[in-house]
Design a protein that fits this description.
alpha+beta, 11 helices
């Protein structure tokens, strides 16, 4: 893993049922992979104490679906195999998958992917103290976990970026290459929340004076003012009280 581009190791693939599957890749020599099972055990013990990796974890071969999703988005052409791991059941089920060239490598990556997915859930539940404990105990884990958090806001859809980020890949009507789409994914994920909002607004064609307005918000395909809930134009800015 290139420590300067951790976002390039994580994507969230849109599932037909409406949820996203965290998918991870990592160099076989990466230090984190050597202790991936231990990291997952630690995460499960602290975040989901009643669940055991050995007794409760389920494996599923998802190569065809995952690889098809990656190819449609021009991502990770070197990977042709994927393994999904899951714990919990029903609404409490948590899943993630890992890509790798051989079974041992895939299993390690999938272990780490599932640990990351659980940490994302912990972040949503505002369990920052637990996350800090995990990061302190496993050097390097915070970097890839932070990438997983950021990449969750980037939606991949049939060969193009969703959530307005497609505008960063190509001008309207242009055909973006796989490399351009990949660059857009990582560039968008590295932005601050405010910068991501501005990128969405630009992709929707908002005037730059609106993009830079502090009351900017994006709702669906519309750029609006949070102060008065009206569609933002330059004339609106001039008359806004």
């Amino acid at each position: 893993m290139d420590p300067e581009k951790p976002e390039e190791t994580v994507v969230w693939l849109p599932h037909p049922d409406g949820w996203k599957l965290l998918c991870l890749r990592m160099d076989p020599t990466a230090t984190l992979l050597q202790s991936a099972a231990n990291i997952l055990d630690d995460v499960l013990s602290r975040a989901m104490g009643e669940i055991s990796r050995v007794q409760d974890m389920r494996e599923e071969e998802v190569t065809e679906w995952v690889v098809n999703q990656l190819r449609m988005n021009g991502l990770w052409p070197e990977h042709t195999y994927a393994l999904k791991l899951s714990v919990g059941h029903g609404q409490r089920e948590i899943s993630a998958c890992g890509c790798g060239s051989n079974q041992k490598h895939r299993k390690r990556v999938a272990h780490l992917a599932l640990a990351l997915r659980i940490m994302v859930e912990c972040a949503h539940r505002q369990r920052g103290d637990l996350l800090q404990t995990l990061w302190d105990g496993h050097p390097g884990l915070q970097t890839v976990a932070s990438a997983a958090f950021r990449m969750q806001s980037v939606t991949l859809t049939r060969g193009r970026l969703g959530d307005g980020a497609a505008g960063a890949a190509a001008a309207p009507g242009a055909s973006a290459s796989a490399a351009e789409r990949y660059a857009a994914v990582t560039q968008y994920a590295s932005m601050s929340p405010a910068e991501q909002l501005q990128a969405k607004a630009r992709a929707l064609g908002a005037e730059e004076v609106c993009v830079l307005d502090p009351f900017l918000t994006v709702q669906g395909d519309s750029v609006k003012c949070m102060a008065c809930n009206k569609h933002m134009t330059s004339s609106h800015l001039a008359t806004k009280r």
